[in-house]
Amino acid sequence: KAMEYAEKAKIQAENEFGKNHNNYATSCNNIAFFYDYNGNYSKAEPLYLEAKDIREKVLGKQHPDYASICNNLAALYDNMGSYSKAELLYIEAKNIREIVLGKEHPDYASSCNNLGLLYKNSGNYSKAESLYFEAKSLREKVLGKKHPDYASSCNNLAGLYKVTGNY
User: What pTM was computed for the model?
Assistant: First the structure.
């Protein structure tokens, strides 16, 4: 049902705003997310790429929405096992968020966490640990210890330590 409405929203965005509008890019992103979530990576990738191209043209690279699409596309590549592509996009999103939002923004902490997860999955445990610590510290400072994202950061560190045998 969600996909049905997402497809209708994409058609409506195209009709009302054209294909070179952020609303259309958002619709592409939303549909790509559904495909990605369901493991249909071949359908998700072109939609994420289309949304990325549109946001770059319309909003520029130094915009939070552009950083978000870089992050989403990186997550797709991470899911696909294309770690080098994912790394470049996660780093790009992290750098944009640092510049545009600052290091004390929850989205910056999420970028640290996502890049840490990529490094953990690809076996680069020292880089993963550093980024997980940064995300945990930021989330504690900005969101507090009772926030679910802080707990997630603690869990990520625990998972990393388990994988490395640091019980």
Answer: 0.91
